[in-house]
């Protein structure tokens, strides 16, 4: 586990920033492959990757600042832009990235739901899986103590060590990365079915939120907010309930994917 890969003079090259950047680049490449394979909108993927990637970083940072760490940052406002310190909430990244993606598709007259199914859902969850490696190397998004002699021991330079010292911690970020890969495969399998337009993206939101809800019981980097639940769990519950209802409604009344391909081929 190395927070700093090397230095250029006094400037550190952090593993967190490098892995985070790679996750965005590789997710964009995956999205391009799926769009090219489908035959629609692949020429828009690089631009979309840049815009949504930047929006995702901003959204993830602000979500973490205001929902997870406001107790610290309200006294350290100048440190809010210091994303290299860690502290990025994926839910905020997806939220703002989705808004920017929606605006982009509307501006370029792209079918938003079809684009989200073909490109966004599989690529986003793959990027999330890779991004959790950045959290591991940086020592954030960590678990709480296991209470035994098993778990991850973080270096003294990490936030995890500052909070829990030498106590072994649950590998929350590692397990989330692994579950993200499982969700990625499940989405690919679901895409082979005769689903309705929009259901792949909705399924992504439901599956990830379900995994995140239970994994939060292992997280030790912030406390509960309401009814013994953490802010990420409350957000996940809202997405799960809304997503299940929307998934059923779209499946019953939405446009079949095969029909969408015929009417939106361009």
Automatic annotation (TrEMBL):
EC number(s) on file: 2.5.1.145
Primary localisation category: membrane
Single GO term (MF): phosphatidylglycerol-prolipoprotein diacylglyceryl transferase activity
Entry's localization field: Cell membrane
Membrane topology: Multi-pass membrane protein
KW Cell membrane (keyword) present: yes
Positions with a binding annotation for a 1,2-diacyl-sn-glycero-3-phospho-(1'-sn-glycerol): 132
Translocase in keyword set: no
GO biological process: lipoprotein biosynthetic process
Swiss-Prot/TrEMBL keywords: Cell membrane, Lipoprotein, Membrane, Transferase, Transmembrane, Transmembrane helix
Catalytic class of the enzyme: transferase
Top-rank taxon: Bacteria
Residue spans crossing the bilayer: 15-35, 47-63, 83-105, 202-220, 232-251
Pathway: Protein modification; lipoprotein biosynthesis (diacylglyceryl transfer)
GO cellular component, one term: plasma membrane
Function comment: Catalyzes the transfer of the diacylglyceryl group from phosphatidylglycerol to the sulfhydryl group of the N-terminal cysteine of a prolipoprotein, the first step in the formation of mature lipoproteins.
NCBIfam families cross-referenced by the UniProt entry: lgt
Sequence similarity: Belongs to the Lgt family.
Protein name listed in UniProt: Phosphatidylglycerol--prolipoprotein diacylglyceryl transferase
Source organism of the structure: Propionispora vibrioides
């Amino acid at each position: 586990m190395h927070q700093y890969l090397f230095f250029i003079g006094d400037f550190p090259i952090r593993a967190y920033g490098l892995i985070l950047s790679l996750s965005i680049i590789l997710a964009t490449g995956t999205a391009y492959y799926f769009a090219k394979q489908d035959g629609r909108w692949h020429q828009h993927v690089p631009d979309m990757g840049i815009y949504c990637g930047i929006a995702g970083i901003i959204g993830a940072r602000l979500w973490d600042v205001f929902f997870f760490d406001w107790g610290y940052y309200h006294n350290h406002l100048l440190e809010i832009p210091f994303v290299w310190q860690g502290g990025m909430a994926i839910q905020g990244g997806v939220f703002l990235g989705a808004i920017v993606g929606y605006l982009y598709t509307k501006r370029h007259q792209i079918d938003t739901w079809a684009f989200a199914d073909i490109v966004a859902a599989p690529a986003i969850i793959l990027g999330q899986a890779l991004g959790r490696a950045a959290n591991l190397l940086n020592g954030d998004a960590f678990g709480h103590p296991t209470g035994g002699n098993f778990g991850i021991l973080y270096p003294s330079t990490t936030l995890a060590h500052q909070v829990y010292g030498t106590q072994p911690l649950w590998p929350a970020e590692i397990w989330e990365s692994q579950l993200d890969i499982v969700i990625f495969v499940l989405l690919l399998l679901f895409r082979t079915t005769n689903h309705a337009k929009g259901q792949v993206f909705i399924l992504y939101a439901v599956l990830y939120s379900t995994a995140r809800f239970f994994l939060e019981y292992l997280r030790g980097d912030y406390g509960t907010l309401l009814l013994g639940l953490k802010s990420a769990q409350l957000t996940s519950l809202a997405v799960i309930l809304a997503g299940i209802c929307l998934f059923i409604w779209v499946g019953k009344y939405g446009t079949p994917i095969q029909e969408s391909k015929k009417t939106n081929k361009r």
